Amino acid sequence: MFLADLKRFAKVALDTPILIYHLEDLSPYSQLTEAAFTAIAEGSPMAILSTITITELLVQPFAEGPRHRVEACERFLLTLPNTALIPPDYPIAKEAARLRARYGIRAPDALLTATALNQQAQALLTNDARLRSLKAEGIAVLLLDSYV
Description:
- The chain is of the alpha/beta class and 148 residues long.
- It has one domain: 5'-nuclease (Rossmann fold, 3-Layer(aba) Sandwich).
- The chain has helices at 2-7, 16-23, 30-41, 52-64, 67-79, 90-103, 107-118, and strands at 11-14, 46-50, 83-86, 123-126, 140-143.
């Protein structure tokens, strides 16, 4: 069911925990993230990542110290096929402010969602139930917890 739901969309934005679950092979989510990244590699759907994800994803590897963990994360991010890595520009930052004001979400979540909307992603793959309210913006919210 998860893969069928995911493949209904041409473009899906990825929330940072999706990458963390995948890179750290965290159960019960790693099977779902493996399926998601396989589908993305095959081109259905295309993935959208905000560069804000880099900031969130690399904190722990930098804190732990071994440079190879940082490099492994970077290799993964920079070599993901069928994935666009989008930095926030003025229109994205402005939209993020609107989303924060309307939904009371954290700045990183607002920037990620604004990036998704800017890039015309039809869905957001996350595991943050607080982001369900974003459906009102016309973006589907796929929660991993709904599939485990």
